[in-house]
Inverse folding.
């Protein structure tokens, strides 16, 4: 379907009134650009001409300058992919499936498309978690991923050398997505995703070498006793999903729970930390 855009240039004193009229007439939101131009849309050329004619009658003495332009059809089922490419996290590359050969990729690759489950590498908190994971993982590790969502952290862990990763999420739909992602990455035999409460299950699955928890600060804080129990002595936990302003509160909770901070990261207002069990 080809739509038409109508640009409406009107004096400032008439802009609010005519903008409201356009919203009521079309049933659509009206864009106001920085130069004051109002932009609305019509489904075809005839509808655009009719709208312009009605607008001129309605405006009367303050008749605006209008112009119309054809908007080429867009396949929105694929258009959303634009701007989403591969990302590098040290040795690790995360790439969507439509990027056949990620540029400058000479290490492990996680292929992951954005879906309903949280975690595609496009969010600041996920980028922090991946960066810290890449620096803290070691070959042969057992990794627990609490609130695993799309499974991106668990998949990254085994791609980086972990012997096994177990993800826990209380959203069954997320676990379906995560299992599908594991299969498409060829690591389904090394990754397991469980439905349930991370606080109940984590302690039963250890001793783990590394625990990943990319969730809210309140949940991270509540899970600290379970994470301590799940970690082997000297094991490491990576926490993300928190805003920079929350860092002092969580650092205090870490110290009280028996963790020593190894490294902190920030990304577009988000904050994360790697800490070792004392």
């Amino acid at each position: 379907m080809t739509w038409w855009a109508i640009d409406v240039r009107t004096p400032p004193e008439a802009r609010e009134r005519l903008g409201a009229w356009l919203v009521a007439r079309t049933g659509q939101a009206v864009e106001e650009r920085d130069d004051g131009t109002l932009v609305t849309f019509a489904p075809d050329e005839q509808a655009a001409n009719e709208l312009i004619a009605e607008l001129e009658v309605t405006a009367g003495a303050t008749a605006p300058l209008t112009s119309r332009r054809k908007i080429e059809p867009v396949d929105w089922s694929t258009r959303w992919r634009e701007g989403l490419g591969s990302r590098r996290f040290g040795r690790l590359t995360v790439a969507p499936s439509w990027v056949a050969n990620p540029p400058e990729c000479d290490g492990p690759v996680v292929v992951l498309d954005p879906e309903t489950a949280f975690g595609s590498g496009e969010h600041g908190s996920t980028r922090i978690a991946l960066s810290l994971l890449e620096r803290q993982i070691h070959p042969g590790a057992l990794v627990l991923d609490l609130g695993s969502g799309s499974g991106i952290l668990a998949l990254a862990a085994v791609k980086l050398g972990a012997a096994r990763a177990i993800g826990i999420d209380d959203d069954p739909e997320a676990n379906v997505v995560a299992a599908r992602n594991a299969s498409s990455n060829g690591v389904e035999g090394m990754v397991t995703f469980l439905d349930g409460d991370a606080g109940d299950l984590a302690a039963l699955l250890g001793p783990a070498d590394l625990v990943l928890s990319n969730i809210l600060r309140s949940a991270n804080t509540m899970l600290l006793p379970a994470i301590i129990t799940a970690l082997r002595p000297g094991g490491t936990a990576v926490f993300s999903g928190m805003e920079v302003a929350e860092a002092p509160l969580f650092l205090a909770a870490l110290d009280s729970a028996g963790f020593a901070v190894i490294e902190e990261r920030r990304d577009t207002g988000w904050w994360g930390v790697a800490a070792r069990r004392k």
Notes: The domain at 79-277 is CATH 3.40.50.150 (Rossmann fold). The two ends are 63 Å apart (CA to CA). The longest helix spans residues 12-26. Residues 76-84 have pLDDT under 50 and may be disordered.
